[in-house]
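Here is a complete protein record:
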Amino acid sequence: MPDHDNSSRKVTIPTCDHGPITVWEPDWCTGSDKEHQPGGYRVDITHASPDYEFTVSTSRGTPVVLRACFEQRPFTERPPDHVPFVNVEMDGDWHPHGSDDLRRLSDTLTAHADRLRDLADRLASLTNAFDAAQSGTAAAANPGKGPGG
């Protein structure tokens, strides 16, 4: 297991397959039983930070669009290996991201934001056209109640 420059403390976690395991715990790890899973398998030991929630303000409240947290699995044999990564929750599932993956996700979200701005501009045009049509219909129906009348 590699050294961790961001570690300040060691923790000992009892496991069912390797007995007590002592590992460096990153400063960002919450250290909860959920991540460390005392009595679980060594391969399941996980360090995780608190969630970072990305929300938006809507007319119906402030929903979470996505969540992200730092994570590390010091004994895993599966990608992303033993290194820290950012786990991002989207559509109800968690997706591990390295720094390059996270930058690509950020670029994609920026492109989506640009598309939403385009939709906002189009909606403004549609709304203005609708309002103008409604004004014209009301004026035609009541010619004496128009401007100056």
The chain has two helices and seven strands. The radius of gyration is 27 Å. The longest helix spans residues 99-141.
